[in-house]
Amino acid sequence: NDIFDQDTDALNPRKGSIEGARIESREVRAITWGVVVTNLPFLVYFVIALPPLATAAIALYSAVFVCYSAPPLHFKRRPFLDSLSNAAYGLPLLIVPLALGATPVWPAVAGLLVWSVAKHAFDAVQDIDEDRAAGITTTAVLLGPRGTAIWSGAWWIASTVLFALVSVPVAIVNLLIAGVLVGLLLRRPTPTTAHRLYRLSVAFPYVAGGIASVIVLVAIVLGAYP
Prior knowledge:
- There is one protein chain.
- By secondary structure, this protein is mostly helical.
- The chain has helices at residues 6-9, 28-49, 52-69, 81-85, 92-100, 106-124, 128-133, 139-164, 168-187, 191-196, 198-221.
- α9 runs antiparallel to α11 (198-221).
- The model has no long low-confidence stretch (mean pLDDT 94).
């Protein structure tokens, strides 16, 4: 991603800090080889060791994110497709059960897919000015802060419904955090507000996932899963 986003990253004050990398042209070759060397052995292992469906899901996951960053498709620079393609962040909930020969929890998989669509668009609001200056039209640039808040809110509501089919407490936490994020951005719809909310947005999956993990652990201790 950093290789293909050098133009917009150069204009973004967030990059080059804990919030994101800013690379130089001389680093591209080393980064490219680093990605290949650290990923190729795992790809070979997965093809040999995992069921074909799990390997196909991994290939889909990888392909989507390569196409997100790299030309000619470069989903990142295509409104709506940039946000929708990030649904692939939910694929690990499909990959893991397929790899273990288990049945996926489909509402959870679908919930994380649509949750990821919302998260990507919401976080992109803080970069509207830099993306616009670089000539990139993302979903956030096209819809503006207010429109993006509504777009993300709709997807987060959909994810809440799907999560409720698996765990009502997790769904409630999801709705509360999403509601705070969307509500505060709607109250003052600017990229600056989105940047201030970024820390909460980053914490969102860790808080919701942590609560889900505690619920699963309690269920295991109580013998819900023989």
